[in-house]
């Protein structure tokens, strides 16, 4: 484990029994204030956040104690109290790894938590996700950009599938929007030519699509092109 990784030891009652300097630094609390204290009294829920914090981490501890197996919370929002401002919290996002601690007899006596502060990475990914969702972008290009974030890039592989799915969804949405636009154009053409209603115009397009085994969008695009002399995109 990297020496800079924040490390915390808790017993079965979730009391702090040990920590390293990196943990004290990450949580902005001196070591003496933390030892032998109830963890969730030290770090309660942020009342201004709607996300699960204490409950989700506590359930993870309970599973590790019960199942005797490690568990990782890859992206966990957990704000910490601001020591410089009473009642205020500092927004934080972490990757938390929980490992069982065994005594000499093989009983689980506690949990060791390794914490990595990924707040900056999470914010960068959220910003890029918004950009990707709002504009056409090549997924491989965005992946290259993400990898340049820096040392935090080692955490990126678990996000790639999310970004791939987002890019695909974005592409499909834009295709659907384009299809709707050309179908509406074709309906307008038919309504003008045949003096029919919008529903009747759509039914005509659907029947042609079925008869020719062509996609509805392609039928509509061909009709618009024949009428206007311009190919729809």
CATH homologous superfamily annotation of the largest domain: PAS domain
Computed over alpha carbons, the radius of gyration is 28 Å
The name of the CATH topology of the largest domain is: Beta-Lactamase
Order of strands, widest sheet: 2-1-7-6-3
Q: What is the CATH class designation of the largest domain?
A: Alpha Beta
- Straight-line N-to-C gap: 54 Å
Count of beta strands: 7
CATH architecture assignment of the largest domain: 2-Layer Sandwich
Strand percentage lies at 15-25%
What's the overall average pLDDT, rounded?
Answer: 83
Percent in helix: 40-55%
Order of helices and strands: EEHHHHEEEEEHHHHH
Keywords: Coiled coil, Kinase, Transferase
GO molecular function, one term: RNA binding
Domain ANTAR: 163-224
Pfam family, one: ANTAR
General description of the model:
This protein is of the alpha+beta class and 233 residues long. The protein folds into two domains: 6-117, Beta-Lactamase (2-Layer Sandwich), CATH 3.30.450; 125-228, no CATH class. Helix content is 52%, strand content 18%. It has helices spanning 21-27, 31-34, 39-42, 54-67, 119-134, 139-147, 157-194, 198-212, 216-228; strands at 6-11, 16-19, 71-77, 80-81, 89-90, 93-102, 108-117.
